[in-house]
Q: What sequence folds into this?
């Protein structure tokens, strides 16, 4: 006996006797499939869109419909009308999805998606950033602008921090690739030179990276997102080094900066704070690991070394090695510039 391609309905031959059982099986199958489609279609549009954007297939949505029907039948009621706390089962499923994937930084910092968001920030996206809901944006999502991939690393990382509190909702961006190479301490050759060229005197703010070499990155980032959309917040930065450890710091306005070891690794590795009787002080509010690197460690290593802003010794600043190792190097080495910055509406 032949069957239909989609639902396996039995197709009696002309030579077969009429069989009521077969007819009933066919009707039961049709009833089930049609009801599953009806329940799935009854999900509200926003939930279906959200689940689809998160990669849920039509097959998965149909399975949800089947699950709704299963539980409804177990409770002896029609799933479309069964009430649970004054809501239908379908309404409860929609509410659960909304609660699990809530608006705001906390929920969105916990979900990695990695979806392209286009070649520029849209007006709807700016609105979602401005109101702090971050609708349809998740960790790992990215914009490709002028050939560079700018990836979302965190939501509201600096919110409520600083000697003057940051009260602007923002998205922290880290480019996938190094933007260019530069030295922490410049030499006339532009290359590594032994001796006095390798110094961390003055800490991060005393480095040529901070005073001069980040300028190109700032210009490129301003062009990509618009200077009015680059978050200006207060940051605590090192400004003194004693016996190879960071011994002083001050608050400063900040837009585009090298990251700290904590922002990348989640803790200190080479950053030197302990020195005999010295009471350790990190001189940073960048002490939490960015969600991008917490959820996808592979994003740390881009197969090219890049600078961090932590002082490791009297001659070395910290960096991420080209093979992914935690590293520190002489200040005159030209390594990659891969800064972090915030965008806001």
A:
């Amino acid at each position: 006996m032949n069957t239909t391609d989609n639902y396996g309905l039995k197709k009696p031959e002309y030579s077969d006797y009429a069989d009521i059982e077969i007819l009933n099986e066919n009707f039961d199958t049709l009833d089930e499939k049609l009801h599953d489609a009806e329940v799935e279609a009854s999900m509200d549009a926003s939930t279906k869109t959200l689940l689809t954007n998160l990669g849920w297939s039509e097959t998965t949505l149909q399975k949800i419909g089947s699950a709704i029907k299963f539980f409804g039948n177990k409770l002896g009621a029609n799933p479309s009308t069964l009430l649970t706390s004054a809501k239908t089962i379908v309404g409860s499923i929609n509410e659960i999805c909304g609660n699990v994937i809530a608006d705001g930084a906390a929920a969105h910092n916990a979900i990695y998606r990695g979806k392209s968001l286009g070649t520029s920030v849209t007006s709807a996206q700016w609105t979602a950033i401005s109101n702090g809901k971050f609708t349809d944006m998740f960790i790992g999502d990215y914009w490709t602008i002028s050939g560079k991939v700018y990836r979302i690393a965190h939501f509201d990382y600096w919110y409520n921090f600083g000697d003057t509190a940051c009260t602007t909702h923002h998205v922290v961006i880290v480019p996938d690739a190094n933007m260019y190479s530069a030295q922490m301490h410049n030499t006339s050759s532009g290359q590594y030179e032994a001796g006095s060229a390798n110094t961390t005197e003055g800490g991060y703010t005393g480095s040529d990276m901070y005073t001069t070499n980040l300028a190109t990155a700032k210009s490129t980032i301003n062009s990509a997102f618009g200077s009015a959309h680059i978050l200006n917040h207060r940051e605590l930065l090192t400004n003194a080094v004693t016996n190879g450890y960071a011994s002083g710091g001050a608050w400063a306005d900040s837009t585009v900066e090298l990251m700290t070891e904590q922002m990348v690794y989640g803790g200190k590795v080479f950053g030197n704070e302990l020195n005999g009787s010295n009471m350790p002080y990190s001189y940073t509010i960048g002490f939490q690991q960015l969600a991008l690197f917490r959820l996808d460690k592979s994003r740390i290593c881009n197969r090219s070394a890049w600078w961090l802003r932590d002082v490791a010794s009297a001659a070395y600043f910290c960096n991420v090695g080209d093979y992914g190792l935690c590293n520190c190097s002489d200040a005159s080495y030209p390594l990659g510039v891969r800064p972090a910055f915030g965008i806001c509406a």
Remarks:
- The longest strand covers residues 233-242.
- The chain has two domains: 2-100, 155-343.
- The two ends are 65 Å apart (CA to CA).
- Residues 2-100 form one domain.
